[in-house]
User: Fold this.
Amino acid sequence: MVIMRKINIYREVSGSLVLVSADLIQIENADISRTPGGRSFTMADGSVTFYPAENDTADFTLIIECSGSQADAVASAVRFGKLYFSGMRVAGTAADSSHVFTGFITEQSAVKIQEISSAADLYNLRIPMKLLLSDGNYVLSEVTA
Assistant:
């Protein structure tokens, strides 16, 4: 089932969240990949030992539709590497308009901007990120403007 949710994207400036772009539309399912952060070792007797980490990694790609000006605003904010997303849904968790997910856009990922229709000023953005976790759960922070 395809979802459509309005989301806002923020960045942090001097401890407060500043709006990058509002009313973008999340158009794809909120699939996520979770990878353990611990380390496994094969012992001398052949047995496997695993040392767990406090958190795993949560990789997510946000797929949105927006206008050209919204795409430009997001593109210029990507350089900060850390963005905040309200209204977004990830797996079974959603952030309402007063809460945000923290997403890290790493140097191994690239935001893809695709023009869908120049006549309709419609763009598709794919924003791969790692989500902030605490004790294995998604961190939802309050929007502070």
